[in-house]
Amino acid sequence: MADMQHETTIAPPQPASPPPPAPPGWTGAAMAIHAVRRMPTPMIVSLQPAGHEPMLIDMRGYVFQWPTPLEQFPDDPATVAIGTRAIRDAEPAFAGDDFVDHPPAFAGASLEPVLWLIGTRAFGGARASWLRAGDRYRLYRWPDFGLLPMTQEQQRIVRASAAGFAVVEKIAQRARVEVEAAQRVINALSLMGLLRRHAAANAAPDAPPPPPVGSIPGR
Prior knowledge:
Layout: H1 25-37, E1 43-49, E2 55-58, E3 63-65, E4 80-86, E5 109-110, H2 112-121, E6 136-139, H3 152-161, H4 168-175, H5 179-191, E7 195-198
Antiparallel strand pairs: 1-2, 1-4, 2-3, 3-5, 6-7
Region (Disordered): 1-27
């Protein structure tokens, strides 16, 4: 009996699904920064709002570089391109390949004003994706009021958050402001790492922060 030949057809592998796009504007940037802060590896984050040069953020040294003055910080850019790269061991964060022969003249400025500006503009006044409904917050370290570009209303909210653990709605009542205004400040203070939190029972984040995607061009 003749041997019967069987052909096996192997289907080509399906391409991996691309990661979901980051939310537009400063919301995606805030989520990326929050995710990177929780990583054990020190990272450089690149943020490029539409119409501007890239901003480089050193999460290890808590400093940033950006050709654009913060007075020209865009409130609602259509897009913010996000990139990341790991900082090599003992590498000066903002060094180029010729760092030894040509050290940079500008090592970076304090990151807190940038985090404040991003945090108060991200999420459209809604709760940040890593915060949870019903949680109570309290300020544990005062920000530098002279360094941050904040209004008197925002200063009242910051002071109200230092009075004791409270939900955002209660903080808004203390400061005599709308809940949305208080939420923007709480988002920013959380992004800056200046809040202590008491978790609400059975609370869960609306959405976990996605890992940052992309890389810094030219790196």
